[in-house]
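In this supplementary section we document a worked example of the pipeline. Step one takes a protein sequence of length 240 as its only input; no multiple sequence alignment statistics are reported here. Step two produces a three-dimensional model, which step three serialises into C-alpha cells for compact storage. The input and output of this example are shown verbatim.
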Amino acid sequence: MAGRSLILAIETATGCGSVSLTRGGVEGGRLLAEATAQPEVTHSRRLLGSVDWIMKAAGVEWPDVDGVAVSLGPGSFTGLRIGMAAAKGIVFSTGVPFLGVQTLDVISLSCPVIDRPLWCLLDARKQEVYAACYQPDNNGRPEQITPAEVIRPEMLADRIQEPVILAGPGVDEYYDLFAAIKSVQLIPASLSSPRATRVGFLAAEQMAAGETMDPATAAPLYVRASEAEINLKKVKRNRE
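The serialised model returned by step three reads:
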C-alpha cells in the first residue's frame, strides 16, 4: 500500500510552508508536485491556492487522492493551527483518510546517512529549541529515542558528550554555540528544513500500517503551552 498511496501533504510548522503530492513511502517514493511559500503570513492566504495549483500541475483529481497528511508539530503555533485547519477542511469535504506526522520526524529524513545519534531541532523562540534525538534502526532509518521537548540550547549543548549530528532550523538560530562543540556535524536549515514531500512519504507508510487519525479530535503537537494557556494559569494562581 505504501508503494501506491497518493498523499496530499501540508507542512506549516515553520515560516516556510509547503504542500505536496507524493506517491509511495520513504523507500522508492516519488514527488509529483510541491509548492513552497514564505513568510509565515502566506500560509492562510495561499495555502489552499497552492493545493489547487499542485493538483492541476500533477493532473490529479480528488478521487485519485488516497490520504491527506499534515505536519503535527512542534513548531509555530499559528502555522500549525492553519495547517491543521486546512487539512481538516479538505478531509471533511472529500472523506479521504487523515494522517499526521511529527515535524521532527520529517527533519530526521533530511539526513541521508545516520551513523551516530541525530538531534533534530526547531526554533521554539524565547531562546529555546524543540528537540528530539534519533538513532539509526536496523535498516539505517532514523528512529526517535527521546520524546520531543523544549529546551534551552545551552542545556542541550551540555548533554552532548559524543559525536552527534544536529539538523533543522534550530541549528542556524544557535549556530555559533553548536559549532563550538567538538565532534558535532551540523546540517544547516537550507538542507534540513521540514518539507511537505517528506510528510507525504512518512504518511504513506502510516497509511499502510493503518495509522490514521480522527479529524474530529486531531490536534497539533505543541509540546509547550501557548501564551494564552500560560496567561490563564497566571490568572488562576492570582485568584487563589
